[in-house]
Amino acid sequence: MAKSRFSSNGNLKKEPEKVKISKETLKEAFILFSYLKPYKSKFILSLVFIALSAFSTMIFPFLLGKMIDAAAPGANLKLPQGGIDTGMLGFNLKTVQWSLNTILLLLFLQLSVQTIFSFMRIYLLTEVGEKSLANIRTDLYGKLLSQPMSFFSDQRVGELSNRISSDLSQIQDAISFTLAEFLRGIFTLIIGLSFIFWISTELALVMLSVVPLIAIIAVVFGIRIRKMSRKAQDQLAESGTIVQETFQGISIVKAFTSESYEMKRYTSSIMGVVETAITNARYRGAFVSFMIFGVFGAIAFVMWYGARMISSGEMSAGDLTMFVIFSAFVGGTFAGFADMFSQLQKTLGATQRVRELLRTEGEPVELTDSMVKIEHPILGNVRFENVAFRYPSRVDVEVLKNITLSVQAGEQIALVGPSGAGKSTLASLLLKFYEPIEGAIYFDEKNSKDFGLTELRKQMAFVPQDVVLFGGSIRENIAYGKPGAGDAEIIAAAHKANAHEFINRFPEAYETIVGERGIKLSGGQRQRIAIARAILKNPAILILDEATSSLDSESEQLVQEALENLMKDRTSFVIAHRLSTVRNSNKIIVIDKGTVQEIGTHEILMLNEHGLYRRLVDMQLEWN
């Protein structure tokens, strides 16, 4: 399980999950890294600059050492027996002497070149990382958009959002930063060790007998400290959850006089955090104490050994300076690999989850609007023939059984029945959110399977009970029914939906921002915006799901008038619990336990005293 953390706004978020590094996980990562191919040349060039940057950095200690030697000329230095006698262009780097001014110029030249190399590696890797991740984000978002409704019923929206944000950000960091630092660390390690052995093989062996042991112990300590820190963070997150739950349900807490219980629960959680933090402090204290003793002890030992070599003429003071600085580079790089390894595990976990989504099969929907052509315009005739259906998540429950009915173009059809009877499922099948397991649905006597999915849905509109508005303006929400619609069309649709008047009362009229999910609008206003959206789409088939059930009387009247404008001259399926709203329907279809029980007009169905429709009407009259 991924660990929970609190974000800055107090909401729980996920920490990237680590996976074991194996052949399979690395293969998954390399497949995802195929997104780098369009930018291959820049990526390779960035790797070259990483190597050059590492090499130029390692020249700095060499020049510092030569500067110290230049300040104390005349030292009779003999080459160490184990050293590497490197002749270059007629002189030996070990014994070459430059003036202080020359070395200063070389230092600034080295820093200038290193600045260019560092800039280029960061710039190129960032460009490659951002562009390749943009392509992955686009593909992943498109893949999620094309998933069927059954996929979303099994997934949490927060988890899917986490894939696009946290997981891809983790991959982006790996490409733009972790990969660069890892390669730079490898180059630094190789070059640093080469220089160390070049300066003095004897002193290098002394250093390597001490430093790796300290580094390994430091890594072990570090892993333990990180685990304890994560445990403390998890416990703190749990205490935060208690606070969130308590204040969200504060009325229940006070009504049941549970203040003492909640106080005890919170105190117990906080004391767990304290205990973990104190334990962690012991580890950190031991770690810091060991590192102070170990690192400075190792430096003292290496310096002592090097000083003896200086006194015997085997090494100059400048060479010892070079050696110590190179050793610091090597030690720091080696210690940094532990964190890079941890980041690599997180990246492999992220790539694995992203690849899982990219491999899933989606619906054959068109993701580019220009590719959608209405080759088979629908008049509005609909026929269900022996349709049966089970939800993929509940295969043991038959939701619809042997549904057979026909609807003529332009008819208003009411779907009524008890809760759970299958009315909304019937609407979902019309929209092809799901496919029947038996039977078929025909539009104008053409099997629904013969239509393109996007083509079919473009000729249908859906107005749900819980209207979903997007966080833009009123204009944008209405235009969602017909992207690219002009102002005149949008205003005309708003007029027909009885929405124009209340929209114009806002200071910004159609440019008014509706807020998240339309929170700034009332229920009736949201419904009329949704109806205007459907009117603008001008569908052949309309599906209304309890469009007026949660409104007050005044809003219901306005919405009902708007719905009548919307349903005029088009096939309409109206799902309703409030039966007074469907009396004028051309046909009322009564569904119960997944089967059609009755079909007829309101007047005909009311004649059947023992019928389900008559019983439902009588029950509503009693409640009223």
Protein described:
By secondary structure, the protein is α/β, with parallel strands linked by helices. The protein has four domains: 206 residues, ABC transporter type 1, transmembrane domain (ABC transporter transmembrane region fold), CATH 1.20.1560.10; 113 residues; 178 residues, 3-Layer(aba) Sandwich (Rossmann fold); 77 residues, Rossmann fold (3-Layer(aba) Sandwich), CATH 3.40.50. It is 59% helix and 10% strand. The protein is built from 18 helices and 14 strands. The strands form four sheets. It has a six-stranded mixed beta sheet with strand order 10-11-12-7-13-14, sandwiched between helices. A four-stranded antiparallel beta sheet has the order 6-5-8-9, covered by helices on one side. The chain is elongated and about 120 Å long. The N terminus is likely disordered.
Brief write-up:
The protein has 624 residues and is of the alpha/beta class.
What is the topological layout?
Blueprint (H helix, E strand, L loop, with lengths): L3 E3 L5 E3 L8 H10 L7 H32 L15 E2 L2 E2 L7 H46 L3 H6 L2 H43 L1 H48 L1 H6 L3 H53 L5 H43 L22 E8 L10 E8 L4 E5 L6 H8 L7 E6 L2 E2 L5 H5 L2 E4 L10 H6 L7 H10 L3 H6 L17 H15 L3 E5 L7 H15 L3 E5 L11 E6 L2 E6 L1 H5 L5 H12 L1
Helix pairs in contact: 1-9, 2-3, 2-5, 2-9, 3-5, 5-6, 5-9, 6-8, 6-9, 13-15, 15-16
Q: How many domains in all?
A: 4
CATH class identity of the largest domain:
Mainly Alpha
Which stretches are low in confidence, meaning pLDDT under 50 for 5 or more residues running? 1-14, 74-91
Q: Give the N-to-C terminal Cα separation.
A: 51 Å
Task: Indicate the radius of gyration in whole angstroms.
Answer: 36 Å
